[in-house]
Amino acid sequence: MSALKNFFSPNSVAVIGASTSPDKLGYAVVRNLVDSGFAKRASVYPINPKADEIIGLKAYPTVMAIPDEVDLAVVVIPYPQVPAAIRECGQKGITAAIIISAGFREAGMEGVEREQELLAVARSYGIRLIGPNCLGVIDTVSLLNASFAAGSPPTGPMAFMSQSGALGTAILDWAQAGQLGLSKFVSLGNKADVNEIDLLEAWGADPSTNVILIYCEELPKGPKFIETARRISKIKPIVAIKSGTTDAGSRAVSSHTGSLAGSEQAYQAAFRQAGVLRAESMEDLFDMARAFAYQPMLKGERIAIITNAGGPGILATDALERSGLSLARLKPETKLKLQQFLPSAASAANPVDVLGDARADRYRFALETVAADPNVDGILVLLTPQAMTEIEAVAHDTVAVAKQVGKPVFGCFMGASKVLAGIEILTKGGVPNYSFPERAALMFSAMARYRQILLRPEPEFASYEVDKARVAKLIERVITEGRNTIGDLESREVLEAYGLPMPRSALARTPDEAVHLASEYGYPVVLKIASPDILHKTDVGGVKVGLRSASDVRDAYELMVMRAQRFVPDARIWGCLVQEMAPAGGLEVLVGMNRDPQFGPLVTFGLGGIYVETLKDVTFRLAPFSKREAADMLGEIRAHALLDGVRGKAGVDKAAILDTLGRIGQLVQDFPQIVELDINPVLVYERGAIAIDMRLVLQSKRKSSVNSHH
Amino acid sequence: MSALKNFFSPNSVAVIGASTSPDKLGYAVVRNLVDSGFAKRASVYPINPKADEIIGLKAYPTVMAIPDEVDLAVVVIPYPQVPAAIRECGQKGITAAIIISAGFREAGMEGVEREQELLAVARSYGIRLIGPNCLGVIDTVSLLNASFAAGSPPTGPMAFMSQSGALGTAILDWAQAGQLGLSKFVSLGNKADVNEIDLLEAWGADPSTNVILIYCEELPKGPKFIETARRISKIKPIVAIKSGTTDAGSRAVSSHTGSLAGSEQAYQAAFRQAGVLRAESMEDLFDMARAFAYQPMLKGERIAIITNAGGPGILATDALERSGLSLARLKPETKLKLQQFLPSAASAANPVDVLGDARADRYRFALETVAADPNVDGILVLLTPQAMTEIEAVAHDTVAVAKQVGKPVFGCFMGASKVLAGIEILTKGGVPNYSFPERAALMFSAMARYRQILLRPEPEFASYEVDKARVAKLIERVITEGRNTIGDLESREVLEAYGLPMPRSALARTPDEAVHLASEYGYPVVLKIASPDILHKTDVGGVKVGLRSASDVRDAYELMVMRAQRFVPDARIWGCLVQEMAPAGGLEVLVGMNRDPQFGPLVTFGLGGIYVETLKDVTFRLAPFSKREAADMLGEIRAHALLDGVRGKAGVDKAAILDTLGRIGQLVQDFPQIVELDINPVLVYERGAIAIDMRLVLQSKRKSSVNSHH
Hints:
The structure is a homodimer.
Chain A: H1 5-8, E1 12-16, H2 25-35, H3 38-41, E2 43-47, E3 53-54, E4 57-58, E5 72-75, H4 82-92, E6 96-99, H5 109-124, E7 128-130, E8 136-139, E9 144-147, E10 155-162, H6 165-176, E11 182-187, H7 196-204, E12 211-216, H8 222-232, E13 238-242, H9 247-257, H10 264-274, E14 277-278, H11 282-294, E15 302-307, H12 310-322, E16 326-327, H13 332-341, E17 352-353, H14 360-371, E18 378-383, H15 391-405, E19 409-413, H16 417-428, H17 437-455, H18 468-480, E20 485-486, H19 488-497, E21 505-508, H20 511-521, E22 525-530, E23 543-547, H21 550-567, E24 575-580, E25 587-596, E26 600-607, H22 610-613, E27 618-622, H23 627-636, H24 641-644, H25 654-670, E28 674-684, E29 689-691, E30 694-698, H26 705-708
Parallel strand pairs in A: 1-2, 1-5, 5-6, 6-7, 10-11, 10-12, 12-13, 13-14, 15-16, 15-17, 15-18, 18-19
Antiparallel strand pairs in A: 3-4, 8-9, 8-11, 20-30, 21-24, 22-23, 22-24, 25-26, 25-28, 26-27, 28-29, 28-30
């Protein structure tokens, strides 16, 4: 918290651009600082050369004129004056500034330059910035409301950071209506300096926050974000919604933020590896926020449902099962006890149906009995407003049981006006109510996902002995030659240096040499044209498999060279590569990498052939990934059963696949110059795996780094 | 409507079991008939032998004592007295009765008998029944409220039928809070007589209903439901939520309703074929209800978004794209006009961002300009409550534009208290507001799905010339022999009779005959043991492929018969089947059928081998299915690209697959005795398809019809 302390609990705040005119943002900020009660417990200095006082606070012409120390500046002046104001803050010794003013990166190329200038000034004085182009900062514990939002939200355990200020206004309105309680709210704006990573660090250590919520459109420092979130998510849940996940959405983000979008696959991998719970929608974000903020963590995956209506109970059951949870099997003594008290038509099995005419006593008995069952990890209380239903009493009892049981309890009181008072009792008592059974069920599923995150062991990263220098030299040579792709022979060198088994292979410069190599390897062999200028070898007849004799090899060599020269007259032809045939019966898998502009090396795994081409059955992780994450990849592809063997076939050597993934992960981290790489196929056998073909693309010197990623 | 007219707009109603005691259901029903205003415009006769009047209405001791004709009886007496009461209704000439009383099918075996008795009495007098065990019936047009619900919902264009009365109470509460407007509400209870099919017919013709909503747990008359819904869904949208779709949920339904659950796959196929829009959750149902009830149908799939905040605009864009819709490309003149009026920082491309400081004039201009663009089929108006936002004025303008434009318009005014007044204006003006951008986007997707239903041509059902009598005879013979599975030879007969190509094949009774047949077909051939007592031929070494010579055939024949006799000593051995080898290179597909207890023959299609076994990549239709539906199946499997040819392979003969599907569809309709069938594989070539192996199971005589389905 220390680095950002002055943003949240400063002892004194200067509002640069404070205004006496109620329709100005510079007035709204001072108003909020006064109305929130902050001005009573700390010093607020409106800065305005033309005013003596603003909303009862003495105004100063400049920050330099303030007699005391200032911890935080809030800047609400037109953009041309901002850099000078920040310089003055520096001179005054201010170390934190919230820049509300717009007109920076979001306003096109000139704005980008302005933002860089602003940042340079701030850095030169050691000032941290939030914004520019933001709504401001709210801390409901210190009472700071340094924003132009309409009022302050109620306090609560959720901390929210939003890249969109506008969305922030909606969130604050929901909060003010009593639906969310916030500890902190930060509108991040253009994120010139302070970003999600800084706030994760700060809020991870904040005792008044127990769930961290993020709305983001891009995360430029991807690897650092993952590293930080991976740590903080072990302390408290982080729930994020990322917009711009589709092509159209990502175009909208780019035009909105001017930033280069990372790929959806990279975000998916990043959130998963970082332990960030991803919300599917705004609704999902809010629902999860309430679940995590107010209820204890789920300690198992067995859920009990208590209901006064069969139908909604079944809907909840369906939703639980669909999301991978299970209905708790109640202990025999629990069932017996329920049977003794409940009417005979009631269901004593889960879902426990207390029947439509249940009054509060029946609900309470069922609740207490079920809550005491050690087979139950979480409880959903469903209620429909029927003639006899004592809605408020049931709500009170639910709250009472929830407070004692140490297991998460959610309400689903269905309806509107009739159940309103009951829902308010639940909400005040810290039992989130969801309007529909399916949504309540989904929240148990979110909690189960977080439980898995908490259970994850510390990641272990494999490290392999490799010949890094050899690859470095090779890459240097290729780049010196002005190429950005590497050929078959060079690929072999890379694979060899990183310890990846390949079929034996060597370059033959003449047909005689080819025949000699072939007899050394044993027939049949493969022949491939060797040229740095021919990438798509098959297109020019440059690959011939299954050559069974010396004369086959000789004929193929001569034909291949002749054809290559005809198709690509200027090609440098080194000769032909003679390659051992890989044994039959291997399973084709693919290991690939694309470098994501925001997150770095995104490694792909899948089965080869039609599985990748037609079924797109692949999965992704960002390097570095742990051993466990690599192992998870193998289980995630839809056709994973093929790895274990089907239709009488034996399973393949998974350890060999993991080894390949690990070594490739290391390679693409060692060489950021590699922007794309595919080994397709790797043939995997009952024992061992062989890399057959690799394609590798280096960052082109001629293009800008932005274009080469696209 | 005519058949059920008396349930909805009777001129006179008798309440059998009317009570003077306010805590009795028999009081609540009379109360509702009075409070709804119904008793003022029609006659209501409380039946209670001990009372003179109830809530100001003259009471009668029996229905027979009523001096006038009675159109509808509402029965709220203990179950033992219900049959006698219905008998009396019959004597009085009443033709419609709502049985609120419980204690029938839902109460176990005795209840089932009671329900059958009740139904028999009703049938003998030609009385139609709703219930028993239901909440009652409400018609907001005729003002009839023949239910014990707490009050009447506001009127509107949605008609709701619910198998769960309890869920009904929640729905009515939502409606009363102004969120839904209902034309009719029916709690179907046990559905002893009137069911979803009757109400679909009635409401399809009801001018005050424009969307039909269904909550169901089971649909016993599946084929009839499909036939009816297929017709009515062309008139108005039908939205259904089915609970009990997972294993646990379906167990809960069975214990709740005592009925045999149909499979999830069958429901999925049924709803799709019937043109019923399936709601994923209660929330989805309500959201769709509001969309269809109040907005015109979508005529294309190009949606425009107008927003005062970038973030939510991107979330909506993502959701639109994910659900298969597209952002409208605005015409150049539209963009130009927007650019001229909007500030330069605004986005004149879709999503149209009018910026955070937009007042109503900017929204209105953008709305009108976008609405006039012929490239726009639907409009989403997003609003976040920012400092300058004129929420109510924007709401009024949105309603005004929506009323004129003839395209669906939805609101997404985000927040709570600040936007409340705006949302009320939208709701009153018939523009549904969704709290979150993703949900609003989903509603366009639901509308696009309904558009596809409206665009579906009349289904064409193929009819093939087949030799039905031959199969009938064969099945009779098999059943007579006490078997319920049929062997290879018999399968061939069935396939032949239904015109499905197979490899040539015939029975050889001796090795010599086998050699003779083989030389006739040409080598290689396949040999299979022919015995009605050996189903799993491979297990006893009873299949040998690729026999290349006369001596191969002779050896295989003798070995096979010897082994079969050793493994299954009592087996009747007819000899060996000699079969032509199918040409190499065919694509393996699977055509199968399982008879669903509720919907009948559920036909499966998929690719064979690991695609079905490992990837479960299959799709389903209920027979009868149209030619178009069969064609849709081919496109639905994930690996459908394999049918078109991948990796240099030619595509396969889709017409031949469709022919197989059609003929099998006809077979399983012609013979309800067939409960399971699999042709796996069918080999499909560039031209033609050959059925290689069929497994067929008949309904066993020894088991009850219920068990044999499981």
